[in-house]
């Protein structure tokens, strides 16, 4: 199966390097993305929009020949909202979406608010991120993360997302829960927490625990790959 892999903030396609071999051993073809503005630290991010990021994901789906089947679209963190947008844009081509530590977005809402400098969002300090998110990343892993981090375009988080096709509700979803548990997520949904209310509109959702920090592609890549393979098998 073709699997499109969308990184979250501050990361490019190489963030999936330790997950991809697990997918390939299962016979899948991985398409890790570097989103616009994340090509390098020196890239011009000033005019990059949320729609540019969505368009890049949709283009990756469209690049898979229709004769080779539907596509699994995987998003990490804010990349989960991009995966959901791809299901909205191509509900007939996306077989399933997988959200890793992230949620589907609500039409008309921005994806988040982060401290920005000159139109871009740098990786925050470890103190600002917090130990819950950084769980299972030792000093060497944290140093590697910071060395690879690239500022993200501010408008990728502040532009409102636009969703138009309610067939997206029929696309099955797997939610991989790392720094929060599946039970906690269900409690947030049932309790009416605004960031997760889009889940109430989805017709087929499974919740899977992967206890670690917010970046399982670094802390538990083999287990993350296994769970993605299980989602593909569905």
Automatic annotation (TrEMBL):
Does the keyword section mention Glycoprotein? no
In Gene Ontology terms, what is one molecular function of this protein? hydrolase activity
Where is each AB hydrolase-1 domain found?
3-224
Q: Which Pfam families match?
A: Abhydrolase_6 (PF12697)
Taxonomy, superkingdom:
Bacteria
UniProt cross-references to Gene3D superfamilies, sorted A to Z: alpha/beta hydrolase
UniProt keyword annotations, A-Z? Hydrolase
* PANTHER family in the cross-refs: AB HYDROLASE-1 DOMAIN-CONTAINING PROTEIN-RELATED, ESTERASE_LIPASE_THIOESTERASE DOMAIN-CONTAINING PROTEIN
What is this protein's name? Alpha/beta hydrolase family protein
């Amino acid at each position: 199966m073709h699997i499109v892999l969308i990184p979250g903030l501050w990361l490019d396609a190489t963030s999936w390097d330790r997950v991809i071999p697990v997918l390939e051993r299962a016979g899948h073809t991985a398409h890790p993305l570097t989103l616009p503005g994340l090509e390098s630290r020196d890239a011009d991010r000033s005019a990059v929009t949320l729609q540019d990021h969505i368009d890049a994901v949709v283009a990756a789906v469209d690049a898979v020949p229709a004769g080779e089947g539907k596509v699994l679209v995987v998003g990490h963190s804010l990349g989960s909202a991009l995966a959901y947008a791809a299901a909205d844009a191509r509900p007939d081509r996306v077989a399933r979406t997988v959200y890793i530590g992230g949620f589907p977005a609500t039409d008309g809402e921005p994806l988040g608010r982060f401290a920005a400098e000159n139109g871009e969002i740098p990786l925050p300090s470890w103190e600002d991120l917090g130990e819950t998110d950084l769980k299972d990343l030792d000093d060497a892993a944290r140093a590697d993360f910071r060395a690879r981090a690239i500022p993200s375009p501010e408008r990728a988080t502040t532009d409102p997302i636009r969703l138009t096709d309610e067939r997206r509700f029929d696309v099955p979803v797997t939610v991989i829960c790392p720094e929060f548990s599946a039970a906690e997520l269900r409690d947030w949904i049932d309790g009416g927490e605004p960031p997760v209310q889009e889940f109430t509109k989805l017709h087929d959702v499974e919740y899977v625990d992967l206890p670690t920090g917010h970046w399982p592609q670094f802390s538990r890549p083999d287990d993350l790959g296994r769970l993605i393979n299980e989602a593909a098998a569905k």
